[in-house]
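Try this one yourself first.
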């Protein structure tokens, strides 16, 4: 070995600076790897939650609903025809213009105003209820239980098992003469549906006229 080679081996050269800390670089790489893993896990969980179908709420059983516009129109037309049959010669008939008329769940009220063949004005209101709205009506057992001399109440069985109740208030005028104040009708059907006719001011319907109107089979709500 020459003297030159010996001198070169004895020279200690300092390594040039790297410009960064290798340990810090390794730490950063590890942290990035952990973040990527966490993001991947969250993405997978989100996809699973998206794919699992949500539990659908259970809707309650459908209850009574108001009659449709078509049903309302049908009832009005049927009432006009029933009035014409019960009161021959009737004119100036109007339907459904009273502020007392109303529409509710499986229920409809409509007022008929008319002038009869003798020129006497009158009116009454028809209320039709479906079977599920029948609980809104006074039970038939509570009608005609205490009919006295100043009232008139009868129960009349009808074909098909229905029962018609005709109730009338009778009062005495200033001379003591009994005055009939009009008849109210209540038709109870076996399925729970009902039809009610209540008298208004003016010419009252007779029992026969009211019976012909209230028992019309068209007065039903589905």
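Now uncover the answer:
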């Amino acid at each position: 070995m020459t003297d030159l080679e010996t001198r070169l081996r004895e020279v200690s050269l300092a390594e040039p600076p790297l410009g960064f800390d290798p340990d810090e670089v390794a730490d950063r790489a590890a942290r990035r790897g952990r973040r990527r893993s966490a993001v991947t896990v969250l993405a997978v969980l989100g996809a699973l939650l998206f794919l699992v179908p949500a539990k659908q709420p259970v809707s309650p059983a459908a209850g009574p609903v108001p009659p449709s516009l078509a049903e309302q129109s049908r009832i009005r037309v049927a009432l006009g025809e029933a009035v014409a049959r019960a009161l021959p010669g009737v004119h100036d008939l109007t339907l459904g213009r009273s502020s007392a008329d109303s529409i509710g769940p499986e229920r409809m009220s409509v007022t008929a105003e008319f002038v009869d063949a003798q020129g006497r004005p009158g009116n009454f209101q028809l209320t039709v209820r479906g079977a599920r709205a029948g609980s809104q009506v006074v039970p038939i057992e509570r009608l005609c239980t205490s009919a006295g001399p100043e009232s008139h109440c009868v129960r009349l069985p009808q074909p098909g098992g229905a029962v018609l109740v005709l109730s009338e208030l009778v009062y005495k005028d200033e001379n003591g003469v009994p005055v009939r104040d009009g008849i109210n009708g209540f038709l109870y059907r076996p399925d729970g549906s009902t039809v009610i006719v209540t008298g208004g001011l003016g010419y009252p319907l007779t029992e026969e006229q009211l019976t012909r109107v209230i028992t019309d089979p068209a007065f039903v709500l589905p």
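Discussion: The mean pLDDT is 79. The beta strands are 91-95, 103-104, 107-115, 121-129, 151-157, 163-172, 178-188, 194-199.
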